[in-house]
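Backbone shape codes:
***
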Amino acid sequence: MKELAADGIPVTVTCRVLKLARQPYYRWLQSPVTGAELEEAYRANALFDAHRDDPEFGYRFLLDEARDAGTVMAERTAWRICSQLGWWSAFGKPKRGKGGKRPGPPVHDDLCAVVDDKGRVRHEFTADAANELWLTDITEHRTGEGKLYLCAIKDVYSNRIVGYSISDRMKSPARGRCARQRRRQTPTPGR
């Protein structure tokens, strides 16, 4: 707005076009940085100084260091500033599982997809030959000794189970075993 006003366009017109009130603009002109923003900058500076001295500290220790330096703030404020600026402890907690990875799209979901006459996507589970389309499922069964997992693979053409695996826990080797049994039990066409 300052640049437009310098070019001769009145502030009133600029505010009307941008649908802004004039009073907040003039208030901002007098004080572009609010007191809360200035206080936040001082707090961030104190946390940064503590982080630069001891990068292995997390936000709780950084908060203690900032308090010792004379900058008082709540624990939640220190956490928010550290997380926004990416100041983490050099020694974080170990990630569990796959580290927060999200599953991707279905691998071959499009093999069964058919668009009907109303434009909706439907799925038809049909096959014209053996080993063309397989369906798989993992089922959990509760027993007196714990849980039991069953992974089964069904050939759509013959409507028969062509591979399976049973285990007391869901794990990658069980899926691999299931795939190996599937390959052993079903003859490959042309071989």
Summary: The chain has a mean pLDDT of 79. The chain has seven helices and five strands. The beta strands are 113-115, 121-123, 134-143, 146-155, 160-167.
